[in-house]
Design goal:
The chain is built from three helices and no strands. Helix 1 packs across helix 2 (26-43). The protein is elongated, with a radius of gyration of 23 Å. It is mostly helical and 73 residues long. The chain has one domain (9-72).
């Protein structure tokens, strides 16, 4: 399948150099990199955000509502 992508120049330069070094066609090198990336992302568990530590005790419902209202203004 033909696809047009807008990639950063420095990234494409690295990919082209690597393809030449490995004696591969550019399209084959890119397909291999995508496959490796897809496989790697399956084996890693998703990153969970770090818990937020609050200072000053629990937050009240009124404080939450005020913060939401402030964000809308």
């Amino acid at each position: 399948m033909k696809t047009t992508l807008d990639l950063p120049d420095d990234l494409m330069r690295e990919v082209k150099i690597r393809a030449v070094q490995e004696h591969k066609k550019l399209k084959d090198a890119i397909a291999e990199f995508i496959r490796k990336g897809m496989t790697a992302s399956k084996s890693r568990p998703p990153k969970l955000p770090k818990p937020v530590k609050l200072r000053g005790g629990p937050i009240t419902t009124e404080e939450i509502e005020a913060a939401i209202a402030w964000g809308r203004d």
